[in-house]
C-alpha cells in the first residue's frame, strides 16, 4: 500500500472561517492524484483552526489559564467539526466515520481515511503519527500556513533562516519536549518524539500551495522542510 498521512492544519481549513475555495481546489487535486495512482491511500488528519482559537480565547477571557484540559477539549472539538466537513468533501472516497481515537478498530477499506483530535495532551500532529504507525506509513506531510521550518520564529527574529532539512535531534531542541494547548510549533513536540522513535520522515510545507503538495505526494522536487534522522 502506498500510504501518505497528511496532517492538514486548521489554519488552512478554517483560517478565519471555513475556506471553501481551498477545500474545492484541494478535493480536485487529491481526486486527480488518486485516479492517477491506483495503489495510493491517504489519511487526512484535520486541525482546529479558527474555531479552536475563538473558543479557547473566550474560555481564557472568562477563566484565565486555570484549566488547560478545558482548552484542549475545546480545540479537540473544533478538529472534529473540521474533520466532518473534510469527510463530507471526500464522501465518495471514504467509508469510515471520522476517526477520533486512533487506537480503536478502523476498517480503512476505501482510498481516504479522515481523522481529527483524540484527547488532551497533544495536537492532531500526534494523531497523524499514531495513524501512520498503525497503518505502516513512514511519511507524514504536515500542511500549515508556513512554507518551511525556520531556525527561530521569523515574526520575532528577523535573522531567522528557513531550513531545507533538519535532524530530529536538532528539531526537538528547537520546539521543546512538552505540549501546551494552542502551542504554535511547526510540528507538535509529542508527535516529534514518536516520529523520531519510529524512524519517520516528516515534511513541513505550506498547504495553501496545492501544486506543491501534489509534488510532495508524487515524489517530485518541492518547497518545504524535511525532518528526519
Structure, described:
The protein has 229 residues and is α/β, with parallel strands linked by helices. It has one domain (2-228): Carbamate kinase. Helices cover 42% and strands 18% of the residues. The chain is built from eight helices and nine strands. It has helices at 10-13, 20-36, 49-63, 68-89, 124-134, 168-175, 189-198, 210-218; strands at residues 2-8, 40-46, 112-115, 139-144, 149-150, 162-163, 165-167, 201-206, 225-228. The strands form two sheets. A seven-stranded mixed beta sheet has the order 3-2-1-4-8-9-7, sandwiched between helices. Helix 2 (20-36) packs parallel to helix 8, helix 5 (124-134) packs parallel to helix 7 and helix 6 packs antiparallel against helix 7 (189-198). The longest helix is centred in the middle third of the chain and has 22 residues, at 68-89. It is globular and about 50 Å long. The two termini are 23 Å apart.
Short synopsis of the structure:
The protein has 229 residues and is of the alpha/beta class. Helix content is 42%, strand content 18%.
Q: What are the secondary-structure elements, in order, as H or E? A: EHHEHHEHEEEEHHEHE
* Helical content (DSSP H or I, runs of 4+): 40-55%
Class by helix and strand content?
alpha/beta
Mean pLDDT: 92
The strand line-up of the biggest sheet is 3-2-1-4-8-9-7
Task: Supply the number of structural domains.
Answer: 1
CATH homologous superfamily title: Acetylglutamate kinase-like
Q: Work out the strand percent.
A: 15-25%
What is the rounded distance between the termini? Answer: 23 Å
Quick tags:
42% helix, 9 strands, alpha/beta, single chain, 7-stranded mixed beta sheet, two-stranded antiparallel ribbon, 229 residues, Carbamate kinase, globular
Amino acid at each position: 500500500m502506498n500510504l501518505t498521512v497528511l496532517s492538514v492544519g486548521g489554519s488552512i481549513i478554517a483560517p478565519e472561517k471555513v475556506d471553501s475555495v481551498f477545500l474545492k481546489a484541494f478535493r480536485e487535486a487529491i481526486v486527480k492524484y488518486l485516479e492517477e495512482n491506483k495503489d495510493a491511500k491517504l489519511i487526512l488528519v484535520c486541525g482546529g483552526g479558527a474555531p479552536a482559537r475563538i473558543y479557547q480565547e473566550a474560555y481564557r477571557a472568562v477563566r484565565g489559564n486555570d484549566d488547560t484540559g478545558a482548552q484542549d477539549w475545546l480545540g479537540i472539538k473544533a478538529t472534529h467539526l473540521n474533520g466532518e466537513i473534510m469527510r463530507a468533501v471526500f464522501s465518495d472516497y471514504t467509508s469510515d466515520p471520522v476517526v477520533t481515537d486512533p487506537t480503536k478498530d478502523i476498517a480503512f477499506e476505501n482510498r481516504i481515511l479522515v481523522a481529527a483530535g483524540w484527547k488532551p495532551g497533544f495536537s492532531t500532529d500526534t494523531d497523524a503519527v499514531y495513524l501512520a504507525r498503525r497503518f505502516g506509513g513512514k511519511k507524514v506531510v504536515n500542511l500549515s500556513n508556513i512554507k518551511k521550518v525556520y531556525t527561530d520564529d521569523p515574526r520575532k527574529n528577523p535573522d531567522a533562516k528557513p531550513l531545507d532539512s533538519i535532524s530530529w535531534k536538532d528539531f526537538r531542541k528547537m520546539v521543546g519536549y512538552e505540549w501546551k494547548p494552542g502551542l504554535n510549533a511547526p510540528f507538535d513536540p509529542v508527535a516529534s518524539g514518536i516520529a523520531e522513535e519510529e524512524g519517520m520522515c516528516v515534511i513541513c510545507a505550506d498547504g495553501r500551495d496545492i501544486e506543491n503538495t501534489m509534488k510532495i505526494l508524487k515524489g517530485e522536487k518541492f518547497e518545504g522542510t524535511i525532518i528526519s534522522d
